[in-house]
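Supplementary Text 2. Reproducibility record for the structural model of the 519-residue chain.

All settings were left at their defaults, and a single model was retained for analysis rather than an ensemble. We include the record here because the model underlies the residue-level annotations in Supplementary Table 4.
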Amino acid sequence: MTWKPELEELRQRTVLAKQMGGAERVARQHNSGRLTVRERIERMLDPDSFHEIGAIAGKATYGADGAISEFTPANCVFGRGKVDGRPVVIAGDDFTVRGGSADASIWEKFQMSEHMAHEFHLPLIRMIEGSGGGGSVRTIEKTGRANLPGGVGTNSGLYLCAANMGQIPVVSLGLGSVAGLGAARLAASHYSLMVKGISAVFVAGPPVVERLGEPRTKQELGGSEVQLPAGGIDDATDTEEEAFARARRFLSYLPNSIWDLAPRTANDDPTDRADEFLISVIPRKKRRTYQMRRIVNSVVDKGSFFEMGRYFGRSIITGFARLDGWPVALMAGDPMYNGGTWDAAACQKIIRFVDMAETFHLPVVHLTDCPGFSVGLLAEQTGAIRLGVRAISAINQSTVPWCSMLVRNVFGVGGGAHQPGRRLTLRYAWPSAAWGSLPLEGGMEAGYRAELDASPDPAATLAEIEARLEALRSPFRTAEAFWVEEIIDPRHTRKLLCEFAELAAPLRQKGPASFMMRP
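Retained model, structure tokens:
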């Protein structure tokens, strides 16, 4: 006797599971421009690296002879695989099976993917479509009772999502319409993506919103043009393939978990490369702007800057980069948006980014151009000062190595947060840098009101005052008192940053941060 009959049944059940929701629903998925969950997993991972878990889980009905007459596979496909040779856990929603809703969910599959990544210290990739295993009103009729959200008996697993934020890198891809629990799982990640024109993300979809008197299409309610400026999702791509590539690249900068350190890669870009344009990139006229991203790309390893959240909190640029192969977290002020002032959105972005650097032990590089917090009615209405203080707290609570490069403006309370206080950090200033409690342009009329009122030529007096103060606020005057440590030739920026990355490498600590990162 052998176990061939059982092995044959196993093979047949696996074949049924891989048919997903059936040929018609698979065709519908393709006709809408979307891949199936199994195609997504195959293209996300290294070839032939996927080891599926629970492939034959689902709901079956049997005939009188005990043989399967119908089979509906679970709408979650998950398992282990590799990305660029590194092991990961990956889980994807199968929209061809009841649109990813609770009717076809086996909750243990969702939860085991989170548990496995957590316990084995592996990055987690979520591919979300539909409600992500969330509820359906039809569930009430099928089960005969209403589900009570939350509590010990909850099936959502959101407590696992929260726990994983402080343990492992989590990437979530919204690859269709994503609502409810699916949207929550998408947001509960370190990096989230959607596909332009195909993905839409919302707490509740158009049918629910329309009943509340607000008719909207999917894209009007939760398309990328809505979610990116709101900060609900980090990035959007033109295709699913591009989303997979960005997810892989994001993971390349991070360790497998907080118990590891991010790997160094080979570098063929000379550390002493000095781009000549850096000595003239900052305009002498204070009101003229410049391209900060051009500076960023000049001083990091060529092609290594990976920006995240470009369309949210736009006065601050955030992303990963490499310096002589070492991964770092880099943020930089962007004078092209609100003059680089920190508004409520920018402060939220800084908090999340600094917390992520702290979680995964990445040194921080800050190319500083901050004239201070945003001012005006909108700033007050959005609580900019409270969020600003939270951003300052995040920076000061961080323990990772930190290097600030003062490029232009360093003013006010916001400017004062260019580095953590009360611990040693490296700081350099370009000759173009200027600092103070507030910019001269905003305070001279008030500070010298009596002198200006008494002058027969207020404009000439104002120009004379400005020239006098400009000489006094020269960065060289500050350097005399050793209040700024080094003023450098901008062309030496890359060399000094690469030296910082080398100095910081042995200081990185493994293990949990002193606080838990939240989405």
